[in-house]
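Pilot study result, target chain (296 residues):
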Amino acid sequence: MAERMTFLPRRDLLDFEEIVALADVLIARGVKRIRLTGGEPLVRRDVMDLVEQLGRRIGGGLDELTLTTNGTQLADHAERLYAAGVRRLNISLDSLDPMCFEHITRRGRLEQVLKGIEAAADAGLAIKINMMALAGVNDDEFDRMLAWCGSHAFDLTLIETMPLGEVDDHRPERYLSLTDVLADLRQRWTLRPSAHRSGGPARYYDVDQAGIRLGLITPMSHNFCDGCNRIRIAATGTVYGCLGHEQKVELREILRQGGPAAVDAALNDLLAGKPRRHAFDLAQPATARHMSVTGG
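Predicted structure:
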């Protein structure tokens, strides 16, 4: 049984009580970590009530509750997140240049995100920055981002682009192998392989000069499927066994009609058929779903 699951809260079909009920089923099955992601989880109207309900499960079978967020709503929610039991966040930040940031996010304001990050740090939340590596877009910022993260004691994870959903940019031209990025960074930084593991797909390096960890998520250059223990549940109740496949089970009606026992049986079927690995090809999307549907 996977020990990690991810919910993608949106204003959509599963109601608050159903999300909590599904979480209880999964905790009873041995899930130890829950991450709320998206999309942007903090735009859901009742998300803080959900966080507080799930936070009450910490120590009662659940070890950790975390969020992946774009940071835009953190200034309003950081203190309450900490009070609810959240202790660390993954924050997407692909550039420290305001114009580049606006281009990547299509409308985002870097200042708003930086204020949210400051509020989260002030609230006591540990922060890891997630940066998508994009050739010709932000590939001149890795040193700057490492130094900035080091100055704030934030770990940094670089992520290779993945062929999920249709995109405006020509994806192969934006792909950047993190094997090459790592070799380049080693010319200026002392990067030592770390034994640290987060339960996710990243491989970590200790960055001596910055005093932080650098993680690499490499779905293309170094397949990570052999260490995957995740399932992802959308706010519709659809549960996916893999980022790169259409294998899924619809839990919403199963929960409503059959209750926890029926959900258990459906999850058994899903896990029995969990793909061994993805088959990503930059030339075409592996699935029609974007990452915002399946979650990071």
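One observation from the pilot: The mean pLDDT is 86. A full batch analysis is planned for the follow-on phase.
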